Amino acid sequence: MVNRLKSEGFWVRGVDLKPHEFQPPTADEFILGDLSSQKFTREIFDRPFDEVYQLAANMGGAGYLFTGEHDAEIVEQSALINLNVVRSAQRSQAGSIFFSSSACVYPQDNQEDPDNPICVESSVYPADPDSEYGWEKLFAERLFMSFQRQYGMNCKIARYHNVFGPMGEWRGGREKAPAAICRKIAEASEGGSIEIWGDGKQTRSFLFVDECIEGTLRLMRSDFSGPVNVGSVEMISLNDLAKLVMDIAGKSLTIENIPGPLGVRGRNSDNRLILEKLNWKPSATLRAGLKKSYAWIAAQVKAVRDGCSLTE
Fold it and tell me: What CATH number matches the domain at 2-259+266-305, 3.40.50.720, 3.40.605.10, 3.40.30.10, 3.20.20.140?
């Protein structure tokens, strides 16, 4: 997002808990700090920014979100971040503010059929998200919408569906399925095997990061507030996702399905509303995005094996 905004000529301030692991800061000003601190958050909103992109959250892949081991810290930290950011943006008279919600807000009962999940925006109520992460995101949507109603703020809300791409987490427990699968395949020897949690028939759609940024900016500069899905409709099972990455890597490997945290059985973006309101839908194929992601992750794996690190 910083790179895209810089390319459009904006002066950009970036804020995060830690430096970007894989590239030097490209923002005009990059500030390290904890947005769950009210004092810190107030200090960084020292002017009426034209646009604010609230992307910060305590989150990770299924191995982090669905074990139950991190529920309290996920809810507490993300809730504090969202409360602090929206209040500081309101006090500083920010022009527009974007909130990145998640497909995890959708009811788990609507996603039991891996071939026919229901993720149309209006289906979010009656509420029954599949995780505390999803419950906090749904609360935050209500938070931003209430600030818009009461204070006249220009808030935009998008429900992201499994964003992936280069220069994201690829190991350590917080990585998402595409990165984890790319890493496992890059590390595996020809004729070896990789592990996939569950039976591998659970389905998802995955959105390449460049498409996510494009959809986000189109929503931000529109007269529509959302919430709206920003995701791909190219649904695939996790076993087939692994086979696709194997084909990209040119490796023949065996899939071992093992017990593990899963989330819902099926999830796929419903893009009818974003097409109606913004006249836009993602255009890049899953394969095209995975080729870029696999090449980057394979380079990281090789660098680790060679005892060095890569940045761009």
Answer: 3.40.50.720
Q: What is the DSSP letter of 110?
A: G
Give dist(CA 117, CA 115) in Å, integer: 6
Residue 207's DSSP bridge partners are: 163
Give buried/exposed letters for 128-148 (b at 16+ CB in 10 A, else e).
Answer: ebbbbbbbbbbbbbebbbebb
Residue ranges per structural domain of the chain: 2-259+266-305
Q: Which residues are catalytic?
A: 133
**95 Cβ contact partners less than 8 Å away, ≥ 6 residues apart:** 48, 49, 50, 51, 154
Q: Say yes or no to pLDDT of 312 above 60.
A: no
pTM summary value: 0.94
267-291 pLDDT per residue, tens: 999 999 999 999 999 999 999 999 9
DSSP string, 238-264: HHHHHHHHHHHHT---EEEEE------
Which of 172 and 158 is assigned the larger pLDDT?
158
